[in-house]
Amino acid sequence: MDKEEAERTSSFYDLWTLKESFVKQGGKGMSFPLNSFSIKVEANPTIPVQVTDKDIPCFVKQLNVDPNYKMAICSATGDFPEQMILKRIDDFSITTPKE
């Protein structure tokens, strides 16, 4: 709520995707309470986000896929690829096993 009104929706989805990535990485999914940990977001977007949970060391990084979408990935080491490769569903061939 400390953001300007015009920024609140975007900030909400930033935090939501960061927290969702963290809980999924831990294998607990949405059964892990989102209010049980906090996210520290640095001003520099190249620095991974650090989750402040003493028991689970991890880093989360936001990726820019499209201006209308938010995406985050989580890693125990903070070692993220420099580049993301986007694939369309048409790039994959789906075959069915022969009987």
Task: Give an overview of the whole structure.
This protein has 99 residues and is of the alpha+beta class. It has a single domain (5-75), classed as Ribosomal Protein L22, Chain A (Alpha-Beta Complex). It has one helix and four strands; from the N terminus they run H-E-E-E-E. The protein has one helix at 5-25; strands at residues 39-40, 49-51, 59-63, 71-75. The chain has a four-stranded antiparallel β-sheet, covered by helices on one side. The longest helix is centred in the N-terminal third of the chain and has 21 residues, at 5-25. The protein starts with a helix and ends in a 24-residue tail after the last strand.
- State the order of secondary-structure elements, H for helix, E for strand: HEEEE
- By CATH, the topology is Ribosomal Protein L22, Chain A
How many E strands?
Answer: 4
Overall structural class, as computed from helix and strand content, comes to alpha+beta
Report the β-strand fraction as a percent range.
15-25%
CATH architecture: Alpha-Beta Complex
The description of the largest β-sheet is: 4 strands, antiparallel
* Tally of helical segments: 1
CATH homologous superfamily - what is it?
A: 4'-phosphopantetheinyl transferase domain
How many domains, in number, for the residues?
Answer: 1
N-to-C span: 59 Å
Arithmetic mean pLDDT: 76
Spatial shape: extended
Biggest sheet, spatial arrangement of strands: 1-2-3-4
The CATH first-level class comes to: Alpha Beta
Determine Rg (CA atoms, Å): 16 Å
What ranges have pLDDT less than 50 throughout 5 or more consecutive residues? none
